[in-house]
Design goal:
Elements (H helix, E strand, L loop, with lengths): L2 H103 L57 H5 L17
C-alpha cells in the first residue's frame, strides 16, 4: 500500500469518526431537549394537581373543624340536659319537702306510719265544715289506681257538687289550683 492510500484511509476513518461523534452529540442534544419538555409537562401536571391537593386538604380541615364544632355542640347539649335533669330533680325534691312539711303539720295525716308516702292529696273537707262523712279521706299520697305522683294532684270534689258526686270517686273533679293544694 502506498502512502497516499494510507493517508486516504486515515482521513476517511477520521471523517467517519467525526460524523459518528457529531451524530452522537446531536442525538444527546435532541434527547436532552425532549427530556426538558417532558419534565416541563410533568411539572405543569404536578402544579395542576397541587391545587387539587390543596383543595382536598382544605376540605379535610373544614370537615375536622365541623366535627369538632358538632362534638362541642353535643357536649353543650348534654350539659344542658344534665342541668335540666338536675333542676327537675331539685324541684321534685323541693315539692316533696313541701308536701312532707304539709303532711307533718296536717293532723289528719300520719306521716310516721310505715306505709306513709308523701303526696299532694290533702284531707278532703266538705264545703259545710271540718272532715266528716265519706268524702273525708286522710291523705295517703296515693292517687286513683294506687300510683303516687307528687307532681299531679289527686282529684277532689269541686265546690257546689252534690253529695253523691262527692262520695263517688269516678265523678270527682280535679281543682285548677296549680299549687297542688285542694279546697273543698
Amino acid at each position: 500500500m502506498s502512502t497516499g492510500q494510507i493517508i486516504l484511509i486515515v482521513v476517511v476513518v477520521v471523517v467517519v469518526l467525526a460524523l459518528i461523534g457529531l451524530g452522537v452529540a446531536m442525538s444527546r442534544k435532541r434527547k436532552a431537549t425532549q427530556q426538558r419538555h417532558e419534565a416541563s409537562g410533568l411539572r405543569q401536571q404536578a402544579q395542576a394537581q397541587q391545587s387539587g391537593v390543596q383543595h382536598q386538604d382544605m376540605k379535610a380541615r373544614e370537615a375536622e373543624l365541623e366535627a369538632e364544632r358538632k362534638r362541642l355542640e353535643a357536649e353543650r347539649a348534654d350539659a344542658r340536659a344534665t342541668e335540666a335533669r338536675q333542676g327537675h330533680l331539685q324541684e321534685n325534691a323541693r315539692v316533696e319537702d313541701q308536701v312532707r312539711e304539709a303532711d307533718r303539720i296536717d293532723p289528719d295525716v300520719d306521716h310516721r306510719d310505715a306505709n306513709y308516702t308523701p303526696g299532694t292529696a290533702a284531707a278532703a273537707e266538705p264545703a259545710s265544715g271540718p272532715a266528716s262523712g265519706p268524702a273525708a279521706e286522710p291523705a295517703s299520697g296515693t292517687t286513683h289506681g294506687g300510683h303516687t305522683d307528687p307532681t299531679h294532684p289527686e282529684p277532689t270534689p269541686a265546690e257546689g257538687t252534690d253529695a253523691r258526686a262527692a262520695e263517688d270517686p269516678v265523678h270527682e273533679q280535679p281543682t285548677d289550683d296549680p299549687g297542688g293544694s285542694h279546697r273543698a
